Design the sequence.
């Protein structure tokens, strides 16, 4: 018999999943609302390169006319009502939306800033802020957008806030399966799905990385806001000044 205490303790533990596809096994940790926190230090992932990736795919039922299309098609094929919505790739012509990965940073010397494609603020891996953004994927491909964090300098970092925003197109967090993943050099893999989206949200604060009691800790946030970077700034008290910006043409695809 499972006690209430055991049930609560298990609910606070990150979900672990094993993947044995391709003949090799890997260990993945999923941060959820009930299990939102993981110590990168305890996982041996608090040094070297931390790879932060954004991937997203539109849902097939939204690409083909949404729920109404599915209901009409169900008259011909009733069993399809019991099938989950298929997730497929897409092209720009099929959907007008662009999810972008970014990071607010604060260093221990007091300097603050943002790494993002907007404004060509791509960062520096070997110098402050020890973050580098690579790529700007408009179509949610397998590679997606990637942010590299140099955790060999983690003692210089006070906190990092990973967030996703929609620069172009209409709000569509509720029409897509969006996920941010962390991959450390020692093989630690952490998934943060952007669940329970708000239909009109244009930004989402996904993950906060900071020091707690000597450990480097990653904590799931997944908080949606209806504005852009300045609203996320106010939510977390970064205290920066914001202006209008645009993406360099070489970063657009």
Sequence:
């Amino acid at each position: 018999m499972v006690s209430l205490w055991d049930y609560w303790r298990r609910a606070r533990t990150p979900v672990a999943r094993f993947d044995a596809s391709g003949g090799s096994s890997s260990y993945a940790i999923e941060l959820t609302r009930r299990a939102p926190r993981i110590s990168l230090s305890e996982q041996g992932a608090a040094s070297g390169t931390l790879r932060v990736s954004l991937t997203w795919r539109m849902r097939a039922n939204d690409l083909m006319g949404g729920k109404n299309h599915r209901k009409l098609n169900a008259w011909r094929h009733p069993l399809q009502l019991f099938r989950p919505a298929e997730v497929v790739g897409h092209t720009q012509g099929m959907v007008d939306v662009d999810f972008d990965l970014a990071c607010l940073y604060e260093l221990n010397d007091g300097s603050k800033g943002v790494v993002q494609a907007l404004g060509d603020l791509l960062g520096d891996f070997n110098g402050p802020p020890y973050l580098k953004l690579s790529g700007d994927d408009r179509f949610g491909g397998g590679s997606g957008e990637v942010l590299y964090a140099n955790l060999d300098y983690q003692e210089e970092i006070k906190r990092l806030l990973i967030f996703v925003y929609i620069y172009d197109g209409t709000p569509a967090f509720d029409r897509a399966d969006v996920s941010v993943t962390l991959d450390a050099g020692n093989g630690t893999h952490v998934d943060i799905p952007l669940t329970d989206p708000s239909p009109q949200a244009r930004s989402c604060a996904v993950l906060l990385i900071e020091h707690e009691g000597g450990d480097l800790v990653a904590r799931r946030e997944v908080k949606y806001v209806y504005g852009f970077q300045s609203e996320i700034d106010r939510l977390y008290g970064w205290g920066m000044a914001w202006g209008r910006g645009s993406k360099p043409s070489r970063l657009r695809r």
About this structure: The chain has a mean pLDDT of 78. The domain at 37-59+96-239+246-251 is CATH 2.60.60.30 (Lipoxygenase-1).
